[in-house]
Specification:
The chain has 252 residues and is an alpha+beta fold. Helices cover 27% and strands 28% of the residues. Strands 1, 2, 3, 4, 5, 6, 7, 8 and 9 form a nine-stranded antiparallel beta sheet that branches. Helix 5 crosses helix 6 (186-202).
């Protein structure tokens, strides 16, 4: 190099030893910058870092409830935490979507069961648009299940029987009520909760007029089995006009 030729700094992208542009790490700014730290953490995460189960869709049962029961039992055996929780998606009268995590109460020939107050946000949305979707994610086995269909309310006697079969805490929470209403203070909630606990303990079959058991009767389901080589299996069940189930596969 000629003495009069300016030297290219070692850190410059134009330096002869610099890595190609596409191979260099992204410059996220200072290491302690909040957004940059978040992006680094996000990109460092991995999924399904475990031995995944085999699943042959050709051997799947004709009834999706049977497969759900099998997968649920296998999720429990695999140590999946809270496999009985699920995402519940609803929409309001204008079509704006909403989603939250709720607890599954049952899954049988009638559908997938969950409960809430009729005056809650999800209860109000189901009154306006009685259709919903459920989503289960069990990462211990790289499995997902999606359920879509129409929602109906079970008889109130069934809702109370379901509630009274649960814990004292569940009954106390139902007795507090007022779900999704504006809360003035934590003290207000504490007082209402303490009174509800006392009532639930002394009246284990207490009436809760607004407590409702909902049943989602599916017309479409998908069972997803993840694959380490990204050859995921997506098995669908679609209800026919005759009421039977038609199975199919989707590209991942």
């Amino acid at each position: 190099m000629d003495q009069d030729t300016p030297r290219t700094p070692a850190g410059s992208p134009h330096h002869p030893d610099a890595a190609p542009l596409d191979d260099r790490p992204l410059d996220d700014g200072p290491r302690d910058d909040g957004p940059a730290k978040f992006r680094r953490l996000l990109r460092e995460q991995r999924v399904w870092d475990t031995q995944l189960p085999d699943f042959d869709p050709a051997t799947a049962p004709a009834d999706p409830v049977v497969l759900f029961h099998t997968w649920f039992a296998e999720a429990v055996a695999a140590g999946q935490t809270e496999p009985h929780t699920m995402g519940l998606a609803t929409a309001d009268a204008s079509g704006r979507p909403d989603v939250r995590t709720v607890m599954l109460h049952d899954a049988d020939e009638h559908g997938w069961h969950f409960a809430t107050h009729t005056g809650s946000r999800k209860g109000s949305q189901l009154a306006e648009r009685p259709e919903a979707a459920l989503h289960f994610y069990w990462p211990a086995q790289a499995r997902q299940i999606r359920v879509r269909g129409r929602v109906t309310a079970a008889p109130h006697a069934e809702a109370l029987a379901d509630l009274h079969a649960r814990s004292t805490g569940a009954l106390a929470a139902a007795l507090v009520g007022r779900q999704s209403e504006v809360l003035g203070s934590q003290d207000e909630l504490k007082q209402a909760s303490e009174a509800a606990w006392q009532h639930a303990q002394s009246h284990p079959t207490a009436e809760v007029a607004t407590w409702t058991l909902y049943v989602l009767s599916p017309d479409e389901l998908e069972f997803f089995q993840g694959d380490a080589r990204r050859r995921h299996i997506r098995l669908t069940y679609s209800r026919t006009a005759e009421g039977s189930w038609q199975r199919g596969l989707l590209w991942p």
